[in-house]
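The freezer alarm interrupted the setup, so I double-checked each line after restarting. Inputs confirmed:
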Amino acid sequence: MNALRRHRDLARIWDSPPGWRGALASVNHSQLGIRLILTAFIFFLIGGILAMLIRAQLATPGSAFAGPDVYNQLFTMHGSIMMFLFAIPMFEGFAIYMLPKMLGSRDFAFPRITAYGWWCYLFGGSLLIIAMLAGLAPDSGWFMYTPLSSKPYSPGINSDFWLLGITFVEISAIVTAVDIVVSILKVRAPGMSLDKMPLFAWYMLVTAGMMLIGFPPLILGSVLLELERAFGWPFFDAARGGDSLLWQHLFWLFGHPEVYIIFLPAAGVISTILPVMARTKILGYGWIVGAILALGFLSFGLWVHHMFTVGIPHMALAFFSAASTLVAIPTAVQIFAWIGTLWSGRPQLRMPMLYLIGFFVTFVMGGLTGVMVAVVPFDWQAHDSAFVTAHLHYVLVGGFVFPMFAAAYYWLAHFTGRQRQYRLGTLAFWLIFVGFNMTFFLMHLVGLLGQPRRIDTYPEGIGWTFYNLLSSVGSFVLAFGIALFVIDISLQFFHAPRSRRNPWRAGTLEWGMSLPPPSYNIGSIPHVESRDPLEDDPRLAHRLAAGKGYLSEPRRGWRETMAVDIVTGRADHILVVPGNTMLPIVTALVTGAFFVLMLLKFYWLTPLPLAGMAWLGWRWAAALGRKEDVGPLPIRGEETALTHAEVEDPPGWWGSAFLLAADATFFGALLFGYAYLWTIAPNWPPPRLMEASLLTLGLGLLGAGVASAARHRPAAQREGLGLAGTAAMLIALTLSAFFAPPPTEHAYNAALGVMFGYAGFHVFVALLAQLFVLRRRRAGYHSAARRAEPRIAQLWTDYAAGVTAIVLTASHVPALMA
Amino acid sequence: MLAGSTAILLLVCGLIAFAFLKRRPASPAKRVWIVGAGLVFPITVLTALLAYGLVIGERLLPRQSSDLVRVSAESSQWRWVFGYDGGGRRTYDALHIPAGRPVDVVLTTADVIHAFWVPRLGGKMDAVPGRQNVLRIEADRPGIYAGVCAEYCGIGHARHGFRVVAHDAAGWQAFSAGDRP
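Predicted 3D structure, all chains:
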């Protein structure tokens, strides 16, 4: 088979059909990555316009440009858009586009999930924009502190838009994170052991892992606050045993890791571009990997530094202060590894490099002010002042936006297939750099002069006017720079000569394909021998197109890519990924229907979309699988491998495991909230405890034990025992909920209600999974070789059993002891 | 802290600029960059800074003192009510304190979270529903100091300010005796 024939065959299998139907059904990672990047960039521009309006209002004292009601919507939306709708989706889109190409694969592990994630993001983000256009945008700050965001002080629909819209977007973030983690761990080119992975993949692996742990607390917080707003369950109402500080803990448990979640992908970009621009290799690969892991770990231990002024004892603050300064160390390791890399090579001051220098200057300043605010007595002064506004923009613009602009210029040829021509970009850089520093450096000073954050106006004659005016002028310089950047990039798409392959002479695999890449990326999959495969073999791209790698013969219309052993990178099995389908968009629409019904307060209609989602989930799983064994198939020369349907732990199993890990973090945060309220909140103990029953507790525990232990039995027995055990759990939970006091009375009751609901939901999911397995076995989808489905169902059953046992114990035992 | 930060910033910028020079000394070994600059350097600086911050922080805490004055501050949307002598006397949007004596402000809120901040008299502290927080402030000399609400509290946040009037000994005596509001 020659290269052209191979291209035609692969393109027929992988391309999306033309027209709008093809666009709606596409699950191709390149297309979806570009859509995410473009959508996120549009949100960036919207957020930027809001920032301009903020600066216009603050330019002069006593300005009447926007009243406080509008101004509060402006800064709430600016923060929310930049954090949730720009930064996260932007790097997700970049990772979705780039990772498979860097890792030498043809797609992500779960293409339909990639598409579902994009649709959820688009719909959720649009909800917020619609709210803004209707003048009903959230106005309680992007941090949504209770009780300001609670019903009595924010009676309108504004806060509901935030809680529901952001949660919708977070669903997308969670499923995309699972997609990224499993794809990095399992779907790589054979031979690419963990220590040969491009650094960017390491960064994204840790980032996505952090998302799985960091986002659930925020989702939990949003669910609890929405329950309080919609049904009066008092989680954050001090008078009824709630605590507004619980919200702050849950929010910052997410919110601080979020900063590193945003920074790490950008640092990954730097670690990729910098050595290429300095014509050398990265200094200290192993040290950098260690630093990334340390950052990921430490970032979860310092959320309290956002709460230094809420009245926590000083010695406890000292602990979090130490943890906060500690993160400077892995950051320093990276910074000096990068500077050392520059020194060991021959860096040139070309385009992406300018932005990297912009990054260094800006980010180091942000880091230094970060160390300052980590010192408790300094923070007592600077907290909630314009100083912090300056600090966070130095960190986030320096640590994310500048590297992303560098990435845009570095990888532009990949998207356009053209070489950069115009010099407009350099001017844009200087406008952005100067404008940025002018805007934000002055905020340090005026913050130390006492200007608080989030004020819509300030009096004349107290020394703030001059700084604010200059700051506003700077922001408009910055805006001009960004406009020029947009023009420059757009010009490259239409008016530049074609680029040759690998224009930077980089070593990573994403340059080993024609530009722009075809839908299937590579004609065959390489065997990777080192960290820089293209440097070992500059003609690799031609050899891959000529079919000298794995899976060079398209067969059966399957979308095939290689799955590997996680650590060694040994070829493990053939992953056949699903093709284009309408399931993702339909599921996202039904998910959206649930959120819209919640928003419009048609609570009694919400069971409809929930049932729809259960049915779609069934369809989603039922679309896969085969009724016959195919056995080992050739992958390269004499080598053969099984398909994923016939191995023990296919990506689907790993996907479930990581999704459950995120789910377990959600549950952990819920238990934390329950224990926190019980021990710290005012107005405890509750007026009455639930009616505990040893019998109910025993029934639930027995059911959990039976459902989980059934795994060792043959199929038919396993199914019977599993269903019986699950039914017992359901009965025990229903009885417990029935005899619990009404949730609106006290936070204790409300917490019990959520715990029973959470366990009940998972028992229901386990029930569905078991019924699914039963149907599939009878229909002939399972064999001794095709055994993954029961194993995945068992995973969900075990999780439901564990959760039920913990919930029943945590609810009945304290009441029994009282 | 400012001088140290400036020095570190200049050091990093200098190191980067140096990398672009055509003629420069050979790069130091990897160990120097990563262990020396990346580990030893920040650990030393940060340990010193942390210890210093801890000592200062302890000194700013509300501690017993013979000439201590205790006042209360109840914030609400959008007003400050200050109480003296266990709540017997009240003033609105202006807090009266003696100059040169430590003052403990007991902070509560009637509705959402607010924060008490007089930049020239001390740090800031939040007023959280269901709790009482205590903030120590002290004015070195008599005068009028501007205070702001430092936690976003809704529509009236920007205008949720107050004044602190620090009296000399005689003035404080007069205020305490009820002569002046």
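Quick read of the result. Residues 68-103 of chain A form the longest helix (36 residues).
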